[in-house]
Amino acid sequence: MPIPTSSKPELKRRLLKDEAYDAIRRAIMDGSFQPGEHLDDVALQEWLGISRTPIRDALMNLQRDGLVEIVPQAHTKVVDAHPEVVEANIQTLGVVLGGVVRVTVPALDASAHPALTAATRVARDAVASRNRRAHVDAALEVYSAIIDLCPNAVLKGVAQETVTRLVFQVQLTIDTREPNWDLLADCWQRFDAALADHDPIAAELAFEEMHRLPLPYDTQWAPATWTTK
Fold first, then answer.
1. 3-state DSSP helix/strand/coil % of the chain, to nearest 5
2. Region 44-57 average pLDDT
3. How far is it, in rounded angstroms, from Cα 128 to Cα 22?
4. Which residues contact 26 (CB under 8 A, 6 or more apart)?
5. What percent of the chain has pLDDT over 70?
6. SS3 for 68?
7. Is residue 11 pLDDT above 60, yes or no?
8. Which of 27, 41, 112, 191 qualifies as a FRET site for 128, CA 20 to 30 Å off?
9. Which contacts qualify for 149-153: CB closer than 8 Å, 24 or more apart?
10. How far apart are CA 37 and CA 208, in angstroms?
11. What distance in Å separates the CA atoms of residue 206 and residue 32, rounded to the nearest whole number?
12. What is residue 13's predicted lDDT score, i.e. its pLDDT?
């Protein structure tokens, strides 16, 4: 297992398992640990300079976040991205964030509305240019904005955890998943219009549809296409 070339993380401020979690998560997110790569306890102990117990606790939390796969007595590895799992993650994001949209749009005040509208326009521009990476980044900005504005504290917490847990595999597959741009253009336009009209139902439906939830009528949007790098 290759060890990140960055300097050894300092493990001082909090519980060791929390510091180990942060260090391993950063290494996964910045690509130092690649998708599908096996994570060896001994190597992680040498890298972080701590015992096995906090490392295992950290790995269990990373498994909860969807970043690590642990098979007892077999292996621990960084999750790899599979098309069917990515599509399921996108649908799940649509379900959870659709609920956030439903309760948040009616609560938007004059100060909050322009920022969310601006983030939505950035997403629409990314779709118009068919820029996959820019679109994912813009969608994440909309997610963050709508979650921050959510007046339901419980739903807000669920949504934050869901985005953290599910979006990793979506980001991994930006270069191999070609979305249905016509679907996204239509849904972002309708979401933008619903925000302007302060219509929570229309906003929720547009948000759920762009995340590929099944439609209640026969005509369905064509799915995303997958390619090899």
1. 60, 5, 30
2. 93
3. 36
4. 32
5. 95
6. strand
7. no
8. 112
9. 149/104, 149/107, 149/108, 149/112, 149/116, 150/100, 150/103, 150/104, 151/103, 151/104, 151/107, 152/100, 152/103
10. 33
11. 37
12. 57
How is 114-167 classified by DSSP, letter by letter? HHHHHHHHHHHHHHHTT-HHHHHHHHHHHHHHHHHH-S-HHHHHHHHHHHHHHH
Q: Determine the residue type at 150.
A: C
Residue 1 has pLDDT above 70, yes or no: yes
Residue type for position 175 = D
Task: Give the number of other CB atoms < 10 A from CB of residue 88.
Answer: 14
Counted residue by residue, the chain has a size of 229
Matching residue, tokens 């849904």? 187
Q: What is the pLDDT of residues 64-114, one digit of tens each?
A: 888 899 998 888 999 888 899 899 999 999 999 999 999 999 999 888 889
